[in-house]
Amino acid sequence: MATFYDQIGANKRNSVLLVLFVVLLLGLLGLTIGWAVTGEPAAAIPSTGIAIAVGLIAALFSYYGGDSLVLSISGAKEVTAEDAPQLLNVVSEMATAANVPMPRVYLIDDTAPNAFATGRDPKHASVAITTGLLQKLDREELQGVMAHELSHVRNFDIRFSLMVGVLVGSIALLADFFLRFTFWGGGRRSRSSNDSGGGGLQIVVFIVAIVLAILAPIMARLVQMAVSRQREYLADASGVELTRNPAGLERALAKITLDTEPLEVANRATQHLYFENPIKAATGQSSNLFSTHPPALERINRLRQLSGQPAVSSPDQVLDPRIAAAELGGAGAPALPPAPPGWNRPS
């Protein structure tokens, strides 16, 4: 049976491998563009360096001021222990377990259940929770969500995502520069290449550079989304490390993904920050190559592995164990016992 330590190690390795792929892709693109434009492979060094420098400059504002901007866009209001005592108590517990400073806590006035963490490091972290999350989750489930979000803080996921974003942005800048350069008649073979008989090779490199300039940004974006999904898995496993209670996080995931109410303050620029993708189909599915989050059902079943529980085929089975028991029993299973008082199966 896999432990949360196994999942944490695997997700960290996967994240590093994906980032290395983006670095190699950036280097390959810079090499081919520099070679194609000038006929000299060494020209890749300044062109790639310029792209990375522009990407870093563009990221500085996001790094130092992005958290305030996101909180403002989301309509988040800071709260104190007098305003939301249980919430502040749970956040304090999880911050102590994660060995990080107490973050600033914000409330978003929206009945859709969700939450996010932001901040460039644990000393400058904030967590934002919707009023719907407080209304619809019990204490154990709230602990699971806060442990997940503070795991993002402890794992420096904001900084990690920014680094990946700089690399992906650099690839896009390089590709755009080269395609525009080509469109306006650039890329003529250099005199030295013609004199040395290397013109044929440069033409081949030029064609390869065009293909890479078209495909590399798409590939880099796919890898960026894959990294985002890996960091969500990592935060789930790290959250269980803090609470030692995967069931609370499972139920929170099930409730949030089955709640089809849209989060009005979310948009595609901020969706990657949230506990569960706020921009999803009514079925709760958000699984494709460009998704910022893994499918909720896959996250639930990974958590169930940690406690040796069988996989479920839909999130509502986590909330109503009678459904899972009937499925495991097959056609000959006895009739379901009466539901607990007040129980309404999610539709």
Polypeptide structure, described:
- The chain has 347 residues and is mainly α.
- It has two domains: 4-63 and 163-231; 71-156 and 242-293, Zincin-like, CATH 3.30.2010.
- The chain has helices at residues 4-38, 44-73, 85-98, 131-136, 139-154, 157-183, 191-195, 199-243, 246-258, 296-306, 316-319, 321-329; strands at residues 76-78, 104-108, 115-118, 126-130.
- The protein has a four-stranded mixed β-sheet, sandwiched between helices.
- Helix 1 packs across helix 2 (44-73), helix 5 (139-154) crosses helix 8 (199-243) and helix 9 (246-258) packs antiparallel against helix 10.
- The two termini are 32 Å apart.
Distance between the termini: 32 Å
Structural class: mainly alpha
Shape: elongated
Low-confidence stretches are: 189-193, 281-285, 330-337, 342-347
How big a fraction of the residues is strand?
under 5%
Computed Rg? 24 Å
Q: Can you list the strand order of the major beta sheet?
A: 1-2-4-3
What series of H and E elements makes up the topology? HHEHEEEHHHHHHHHH
The CATH homologous superfamily name of the largest domain equals Metalloproteases ("zincins"), catalytic domain
**Proper CATH architecture of the largest domain:** 2-Layer Sandwich
Helix proportion range: 55-70%
Number of domains: 2
Would you state the CATH class of the largest domain?
A: Alpha Beta
Describe the sheet with the most strands. Answer: 4 strands, mixed
Number of helices: 12
Mean pLDDT: 81
The number of E-state strands comes to 4
CATH topology of the largest domain: Zincin-like
